[in-house]
Input
Amino acid sequence: MTSDTQSATDAALIRALAKRCSAAISESAFELTTLDQAIGDGDHGLNMNRGFLAIAEAAEDLAAAPFGAALQKAGTILVMKVGGASGPLYGSALMAMGKAAPVAPSTPQEAAAMLRAGFEAVKARGRSDVGAKTMLDALAPVLAALEAGGGAAEVRAAVAQGLEATREMRATKGRAAFLGERSIGHIDPGARSAQVLANVACDLAEGAS
Ligand code: ADP
Ligand code: MG
Output
């Protein structure tokens, strides 16, 4: 593959990721906000929508960069545009993923290595880990599925299971932690937005148009 072909492929992928993530987040914004009203402050849909709209608006600029650099730029946009905890967390994740994957991953193991970097960045930035009822609980099963060589179907199942598992968890990080036991019985808004984004990645990996 020549470098010209490589960058043309990257550009199309980056454009598609930016636009589809933004569209999917926008479609889910009301739901994300409703989930955050139950155990947080009701701004998760608004926060995510603001950040991903800005990413969609920057799609052409992002598409001019190689894959990893585009992810890093998108992460910077989230950190700058989103006031809530989720902006710096998703922003750090994208920046770390872009550093870990200069070119787009083409195998589950390569995708796992990229996601692993993002996962560790969220843990570090959020001083958090699995079991605290956060986006990390949706992402951990995805990592395991990819590390085991799973494809889009396995990733969709894994993220759905990870999201559902947050329902019975007691939050120990983020605003939901203030509710203590009362956070039990609700799925985590950030875990749901992680599912929305993971499913877009699956759509693109499956080549859906
Ligand atoms: P805020 O909590 O500032 O209102 P959002 O509502 O946009 O920000 O995002 C809330 C989501 O962020 C939570 O549902 C959770 O998934 C995630 N989150 C919050 N704090 C942490 C943390 N310390 N580590 C990992 N994820 C976190
Ligand atoms: Mg909130």
Remarks:
- The pocket of adenosine-5'-diphosphate (ligand 1) is lined by residues 36, 40-41, 43-44, 47, 84-86, 89, 122, 126, 128, 134-136, 173-175, 188-191 (CB under 6 Å).
